[in-house]
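Continued from yesterday's entry.
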Amino acid sequence: MWWLIPAALAVAAAAALRWARRLVVATVSGPSMEPAFADGDRVLARPVRPGRVRPGQVVVVLPEYEGVRPRRPASRLLIKRVAAVPGDPVPDGLGPALAGAAGTPVPSDRFVLLGDNPGHSVDSRQEGFFAAARIQGVVVRRLGETAGNNSQ
């Protein structure tokens, strides 16, 4: 029976390693998510099924030109806040890309994503809906100090 302890530890270590490999670390580039996240902030995101993404959560997303789930450097990811999920009404006043869709349901496998700083964000206001397959994870925490607030 002594062998059960090392076997259990090995299984736990393998599960932890598998889980850790799935985490995404991304660096905020630019002011699009200020004041919540500043340029240079690093965030940790966990993969999540599209059906578990909720309005108000911050997600890490692939830019359109990246395609779906390629190997990519973390610096090329986008960070945006979820404004609406499939089935939710498209919010009013989102600019040219979704102006005609206001009030209609967000299509399945699509999301409305916005930057917190509208004057400095390329998001659903300009690009329209984001495909669910582009979402790489939900931000769970900031890593280290806030780059824009190091003195505090």
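--- second protein ---
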Amino acid sequence: MMTDVMEQSGGPTRPGQPAAQGAGPVAATAATGGNTEPAEQQTGTEEPSASARIVQIRERIDEIDNALVTLWQERAALSQEVGATRMASGGTRLVLSREREILERFRVALGADGTQLALLLLRAGRGPL
């Protein structure tokens, strides 16, 4: 659940705010170093080869998550720059046709979840309506 993610990560990072060094799932795992929890509690299985594979997969997931956060922050900053540039030149705060285009692109690629993701991305870049 999202609350689980929030609790584990220490909360969301705001656009334009640098991610805390050492934050995130990979750093949290590394920080525990000699974790004394049984393998089953860490991976959900006692079988050594399955447990090792799960750890490997989770490390890659953590890398992807870190990349997503970095890309999210970059996208939000670029979107904010577009809005500021447009408004400074006398344009509107936002362009609804562009937002609809983004929503549709994400909906086609990811379904209903894509629409929700696109709404979050748009909000991160322009702020709430």
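The mean pLDDT is 80. The CA atoms of residues 123 and 129 lie 8 Å apart. Will compare against the first tomorrow.
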